[in-house]
Amino acid sequence: MIPVNEPLFSGNEKQYLDECIETGWVSSEGKFVTEFENKLANRVNRQHAIAVSNGSAALDIAIAALNIGPGDEVIVPTFTIISCVASIVRAGAKPVLVDCDEQTWNMDIEQLESAITNHTRAIMMVHIYGLPVDVDKVLTLADKHGLYVIEDAAEMLGQSYKNQPCGSFGDISTFSFYPNKLVTTGEGGMVLTNDAFLAERCRSLMNLCFQNNQRFVHEELGWNFRMSNLQAAVGLAQLENLDEAVSKKREIGSFYQELLANITRLKLPIHKTKYADNIYWVFGIVLDHSKTNLSAKQLMSQLAEKKIGTRPFFWPMHKQPVFNKQRMFINDTHPVAEYISTQGLYIPGGLAITRQQQEIVANVLIEMLA
Ligand SMILES: *Cc1c(COP(=O)(O)O)cnc(C)c1O
């Protein structure tokens, strides 16, 4: 079986973990948590970083810290993970969806301005699969209308936009350290900002809103979203190897581009845009509707028979039963997201994949589609 993702632990992970166990520091009070926060903040040019239990929690904290709630609207792409929209809905605010761009799969910047109303408070920009959003356009628009920007950079640690690191943009940015991300802690996430006041709010909200002077007296409801020292130990070791991970991802992507170039029934990801080279967080492929009747679902089950792991593309937020049952997005149509979500899938591309495994995947695809 060639799994869709296999993480790589090739640095100081074991050594740091041993240190946690030998010293007894396993909770969020351990020193690796602060070290990991500082090192990540440095890496992405942010003043403050707050480690949390996962990337979805990071988004919940970002929305709460900005006091987004009932009566507010947040613009967000329909083609993304549910965590983005869940954080808005749970806060009692209204998500306003925009379609994605057919080339980059990122939110369609051209649709942003018409989505803005008197109730809009924020734009949540989410970098999808390997290429960043055209950030400057979002920041300019947000500035013009006085909106917050939340940058979900979960898939883009190590990527940059016009030579500025992803995760450095907007009022608050977030990362995830799930095992398929460029840095993993098993489960984990981070919230980052340059605003000291927002950083304090995030720290309080993710730690049950304990107070310094009267610890068990609470003015506000928070969560326990703390990251453990064990997780941070792994994260710190992983971060030391981030540059290697980024190169490896780009090598994996470039090699697939070569191997799959002649399959005309497939649309491959774009290798670069004016503002970034693809980091290939995942290698997505889209079946060209005009050249084949095969759906992504059918291709995925054929690949599974050949012991090749895949994942479908995100299912658009406006098609989610959980939201439709609440009468949300009933009249939304977003044709690009609808198209790529039925025709798209991604193939094995974790950091532990070998060139030989990539050749096997490519040969099977060629056999099935050429
Ligand atoms: C992975 C991911 C998340 C969620 O992260 P978890 O750690 O799995 O909760 C959020 N946003 C995006 C874009 C992601 O890819």
Structure notes:
- With 370 residues, the chain is an alpha/beta fold.
- The chain contains 13 helices and 13 strands.
- A hairpin with a 2-residue loop joins strand 6 (160-161) and strand 7 (164-165).
- The protein is globular, with a radius of gyration of 21 Å.
- The chain starts with 12 loop residues before the first helix and ends with a helix.
- The mean pLDDT is 97.
- The structure holds pyridoxal-5'-phosphate (PLP).
> Any idea what the shape is?
globular
Radius of gyration: 21 Å
Largest sheet: 7 strands, mixed
Low-confidence stretches: none
- Total beta-strand segments: 13
Proportion in β-strands: 5-15%
What fraction, in percent, of the residue positions are helical? 25-40%
- Mean pLDDT rating: 97
Named once each, the bound ligands are: pyridoxal-5'-phosphate
Secondary-structure class: alpha/beta
Secondary-structure element order, N to C: HHEHEHEHEHEEEEEHHHEEHEHHEH
SS field, number of helical segments: 13
State the strand order across the main sheet. Answer: 1-9-8-5-4-2-3
SSE blueprint:
Layout: H1 13-23, H2 31-43, E1 48-52, H3 55-65, E2 73-77, H4 82-90, E3 94-98, H5 112-115, E4 120-126, H6 135-145, E5 148-152, E6 160-161, E7 164-165, E8 172-176, E9 189-193, H7 196-205, H8 229-240, H9 242-260, E10 266-267, E11 283-287, H10 296-305, E12 311-312, H11 321-324, H12 335-343, E13 344-347, H13 355-369
Parallel strand pairs: 2-3, 2-4, 4-5, 5-8
Antiparallel strand pairs: 1-9, 6-7, 8-9, 10-11, 11-13, 12-13
This protein binds pyridoxal-5'-phosphate.
